Amino acid sequence: MRSVGFFIGLAFSVSAAAQHIQVSGRFLDDSVAVGKPVRFALSVRYSPRQTVLFPDSSYAFAPFEFYKKKYFNTFTKDTVSTDSVIYSLTSFELDSLQTLRLPVFAVNKKDCVAVYSPFDTVRFKKYVSALPDSSLAKLPLKTNTLYYKVAKLFNYFLAAVIAGGLLMAAVVCWFIFRKKILAYFAKRRLAKEHQSFLRQFEKSVSAWNVNRESRDAETALAVWKKYVEKLMAAPISKLTTKEIRAAIPDEHLAKNLSKIDGVIYGQIIPQENPFLELKAFGLDQYYWKMERIKNGK
């Protein structure tokens, strides 16, 4: 008995919610053609205390398909509000008569009640009438075997799969060969810097060999210090010859640095070229750095 009472109460509440709502709908065009928009006007009269909703683009407008819609502002007079919307729909059906009715949803506290408009009918407009087979046989048809080039469609899905596969392969290769890749580019960068050092250093030394100017010797020493500083990760360019001798225990290097100081500050020309030892030391540091990169250090 409780179940029967529940359903009776539910039906009564639905009826009460719907009886104060008047829904009307009609086609604004007298005919519809395949794929051409046809307008359907839907309006509702209701109490301002109620909330109503119109169907949106997700609603099934069968046998029509949604194209667009146009809302009109709510008009309220006395105790009655009026809302209207015009739907533009398309149809691809070939039935001579096509009918439609649409709902307006009355929102309650727990659910919505659909109140439908009456059915309205629109006539299907044919552009081509059926031709008998005898007429088709008499048509002056011509055979055309010429090649017509059709643009190929781009397969976005396949392209996305290939791009994803390449990206995944690149990530895997990076994790497997990361150390080798980094070492390869580090060695290339180091070799490029070494060649740049040799060009600048030999240019300054050659100028000193010709002119015996102290500024050429000073330039060559500055180029050497800057290069060795980067290889050894030590502030060599800011150190004096005495400080370099304490930091790098190499007697031949210290002796030749002292000779270069004599060239720069005392205009003393040594019998042997002191820059050869600096170049040899830079080359030793270059090979030492290359070996460390090779060993992943």
Quick structural gist:
By secondary structure, the protein is an alpha+beta fold. It has helices at 2-19, 133-137, 156-211, 214-232, 241-247, 251-266, 275-294, and strands spanning 22-27, 31-32, 38-46, 51-53, 64-77, 80-91, 97-100, 103-107, 112-116, 120-124. The protein contains seven helices and ten strands.
What can you tell me about this protein's structure?
This protein has two domains: 20-126, Immunoglobulin-like (Sandwich); 185-294, no CATH class. Helix 5 runs antiparallel to helix 6 (251-266). The protein is elongated and about 115 Å long. A hairpin with a 4-residue loop joins strand 8 (103-107) and strand 9 (112-116). The protein has helices at residues 2-19, 133-137, 156-211, 214-232, 241-247, 251-266, 275-294; strands at 22-27, 31-32, 38-46, 51-53, 64-77, 80-91, 97-100, 103-107, 112-116, 120-124. Residues 1-14 have low confidence and may be disordered. Helix content is 47%, strand content 22%. A four-stranded antiparallel beta sheet has the order 1-3-6-5, with no helix packed on it. With 297 residues, it is of the alpha+beta class.
